[in-house]
TrEMBL record:
Keywords: Membrane, Transmembrane, Transmembrane helix. The keyword Transmembrane helix applies. This is DMT family transporter. The lineage of its organism: Bacteria, Bacillati, Actinomycetota, Actinomycetes, Micrococcales. SUPFAM superfamilies: Multidrug resistance efflux transporter EmrE. InterPro entries: EamA_dom, EmrE-like. Residues 1-133 form the EamA domain. The chain crosses the membrane at residues 61-79, 86-110, 116-133, 145-166, 172-194, 206-231, 237-260. Belongs to the EamA transporter family. Gene3D superfamilies: 1.10.3730.20. The keyword ATP-binding does not apply.
Length: 285
């Protein structure tokens, strides 16, 4: 069941990226992030209020909040990196960094000892993520964009690692506190790192109701992905859960191929096959 939830998390993240990415073409990316986090917060609040949950422990709320800080920071750096025209480098760096750091910390600090097949799946998934998201002709990115990609990966890793520390009976409380912290973090990012953004990018500050709804929907899907990830951790190693949840780049590639009629490069096809193989290996371990 944990494997299925982790894959559902990846699916939700992938669809969220597609919806949010389309919205970001019409509105300032950091505002898409903010509206998304607000949408996620409202949705999780409704679920927590409507479905009986045990009273939250302070420590679980704290871990959730720290996870939200990672989410907000990761999104802020990722959007800034992409605004500098280095998407083909920033996205792979952030995705792979978000997987590699939790795996290393889980094995060296948390003392997890996943079976050999899991490690084989992990080792296959990392280059798969790189190949899937590597869509450009290989133009070198600026040093600043590389730093943004690495910083985004650290934020994503913090998100996964901190949420994994929440107690088994915490329910959705950590996801709720995380949305609050993510909103605060994105607001702080909007007031600081976006100040030097290109003027043309700043002109995308207004948007229609439809675009705002899409941005909010992306946030709802992202919150659902985090919830699925949290519950997947109840039965799976952090290592396996993080890797499976981080296979979300597969979704934008498939959507681009089928709906947007984009053409896959040979390395992307190789990456998709490797990602499928990694999923099978981790699932049967």
């Amino acid at each position: 069941m944990g494997v299925v939830l982790a894959l559902l998390s990846a699916l939700s993240y992938g669809v969220s990226d597609v919806v949010g990415g389309l919205a970001a073409r019409r509105m300032l990316p950091v505002r898409v992030a903010l509206v998304g986090q607000i949408g996620g917060l409202l949705t999780v609040t409704v679920v927590v209020v409507g479905v009986p949950h045990p009273p939250p422990e302070v420590v679980d709320l704290a871990w959730g909040a720290l996870s939200g800080v990672g989410t907000g920071a990761g999104m802020a750096f990722l959007f800034r990196g992409m605004s500098r025209g280095a998407m083909s480098i920033v996205v792979p760096l952030s995705a792979v960094g978000g997987v590699a750091l939790p795996v290393l910390v889980s094995a060296t600090v948390l003392g997890e000892r996943p079976p050999g097949l899991t490690w084989l799946g992990v080792s296959l998934a990392l280059p798969a993520l790189w190949l899937i998201t590597r869509t450009s002709t290989g133009t070198p990115a600026s040093r600043a964009s590389l730093v943004d990609g690495l910083a985004a990966g650290v934020g994503i890793a913090i998100q996964y690692l901190c949420l994994a520390q929440a107690g088994a009976g915490s329910g959705l409380w950590p996801v709720l506190s995380g949305r609050v912290a993510a909103i605060v973090t994105v607001l702080a990012a909007a007031a600081t790192i976006m100040r030097g953004s290109d003027g043309a990018l700043r002109q995308r500050g207004t948007a229609s109701t439809g675009v705002l709804a899409a941005a909010a929907g992306a946030g709802v899907l992202a919150a659902a992905a985090l919830a699925a990830y949290l519950f997947a951790l109840r039965t799976e190693f952090v290592t396996a859960t993080v890797v499976l949840s981080s296979l979300y780049p597969v979704v934008p590639v498939v959507v681009g191929l089928v709906l947007l009629r984009e053409r896959l490069r040979r390395r992307q096809v190789t990456g998709l096959v490797a990602a499928l193989g990694a999923t099978v290996l981790i699932a049967i371990a």
